UniProtKB/TrEMBL annotation:
Cross-referenced PANTHER family: L-THREONINE ALDOLASE, L-THREONINE ALDOLASE-RELATED
Name of this chain's protein: Aminotransferase class I/II-fold pyridoxal phosphate-dependent enzyme
Organism for this UniProt entry: Larkinella knui
Gene Ontology MF terms: L-allo-threonine aldolase activity; transaminase activity
Domain of life (superkingdom): Bacteria
Cofactor: pyridoxal 5'-phosphate
An annotated GO BP: glycine biosynthetic process
Domain Aromatic amino acid beta-eliminating lyase/threonine aldolase: 4-285
Pfam families membership: Beta_elim_lyase
GO terms under cellular component: cytosol
Gene3D superfamilies xref list: Aspartate Aminotransferase, domain 1, Type I PLP-dependent aspartate aminotransferase-like (Major domain)
Record-stated family: Belongs to the threonine aldolase family.
Length: 343
């Protein structure tokens, strides 16, 4: 039995999700008449109390469309040094939006109102114009750390005081919502735009949504077409999204509980030096100085455990819909056998 903990994107659609996809009513989304896409966009917008939504192929696309739509060439985007929009989107802020980036060194990838304030450019002709703040929730590189509403409200206040837009990379926003018990509507009122992923913890094969005001989404839709992101009978994929929003959100707490159990297992391993706090479904741990993460991950793979190196001595596990209690027990046995040959 292979245990795949590389990401919460590795899930396969469940039989019930596939059934929903096979039986979807579809149209042509570029022509604006795919009923299932329209239903998903409306459902998501309503859930967050936002005006409109745009269904896209990936979280990279929804983030990039948001940044491009919010900014003008030469503008400055404030984000954390660990953020996905900066680290893992191919330099897209520079390529797609022609914008510059002002990196913040936050705590586990999280900005604070004071940090944002410190990074707003003065009105000076030498400087780019600060236009947009991007938050990530939960923070992937921060080990699944999350914001609370009061923390975000303080950042929103700074944005309002300085005429800045606020975007959320919410690839794993539902993990944060499940953990804090906060409401999606509260998020809808605080952000100008929100990106959520359906293919992360929610188990869809494809899909992300960008949420925002109607005129913002209209412009983002133009850019999506320009980038070749217009699609036709996308309702088959949207049906998976509707199914996931209805059935796969509440169960995320199981992923969080299993992640914490993995943390307890790791505490007993001599090769593990440090375990990052486990707040949601991401487990990051540091190996002893003499063990390289790449070697360790290779050895795990030989035992049928798939993980990703997350730095020179860091390894990441992510729990998800297809990682069961049976997998958890099996993982414990294999980790206990010892992974590194010790002399
Ligand atoms: C996965 C992820 C995305 C989007 O990734 P895609 O693979 O393009 O869907 C965006 N932000 C964060 C924090 C992510 O983890």
């Amino acid at each position: 039995m292979s245990i795949d903990l590389r990401s919460d994107t590795v899930t396969k659609p469940t039989p019930a999700m596939l059934e929903a996809m096979f039986t979807a009513e579809v149209g042509d989304d570029v022509l604006g008449d795919d009923p299932t896409v329209l239903a998903l966009e409306e459902k998501a917008a309503r859930l967050f109390g936002m005006e409109a939504a745009l269904f896209c192929t990936s979280g990279t696309m929804t983030n990039q469309l948001a940044i491009r739509t919010h900014t003008r060439p030469g503008d400055d985007v404030i984000c954390d040094q660990l953020s996905h929009v900066y680290l893992y989107e191919g330099g897209g802020i520079a390529v797609n939006a022609l914008a510059s980036v002002n990196l913040v060194h936050g705590e586990r990838g999280k900005l604070t109102a004071d940090l944002v304030l410190d990074h707003i450019q003065p009105d000076d002709l030498h400087k780019p114009i600060s236009r947009l703040v991007c938050l990530e929730n939960t923070v992937n590189k921060g080990g699944g750390s999350y914001y609370t509403i009061p923390e975000i409200a303080a950042i929103r206040q700074v944005c309002d005081d300085h005429g800045l837009r606020l975007h959320l990379d919410g690839a794993r926003l539902f993990n944060a919502l499940i953990e804090t018990g906060e409401s999606p509507e509260a998020y809808g009122t605080l952000f100008d735009s929100i990106s959520i992923c359906l293919s992360k913890g929610l188990g869809c094969p494809v899909g992300s949504l960008l949420l925002g005001k109607a005129d913002f989404i209209k412009q983002a839709r133009r850019y999506r077409k320009l980038m070749g992101g217009g699609w036709r009978q996308a309702g088959y994929l949207a049906a998976a999204g509707i199914y996931a929003l209805d059935h796969h959100v509440n169960r995320l707490k199981l992923d969080h509980a299993r992640a914490r159990k993995i943390g307890q297992m790791l505490e007993h391993l001599p090769e593990v030096e440090e375990i990052y706090p486990i707040d949601t479904n991401i487990v990051i741990f540091r190996l002893n100085q003499n063990i390289l993460a790449a070697d360790y991950v290779d050895q795990l793979a030989r035992k049928g455990i798939l993980a990703v190196p997350f730095g020179r001595h860091l390894v990441r596990f992510v729990t998800h819909l297809d990682f069961t209690d049976e997998h958890l027990e099996n993982l414990e046995l294999k980790l206990k056998e010892g992974v590194v040959s010790r002399s």
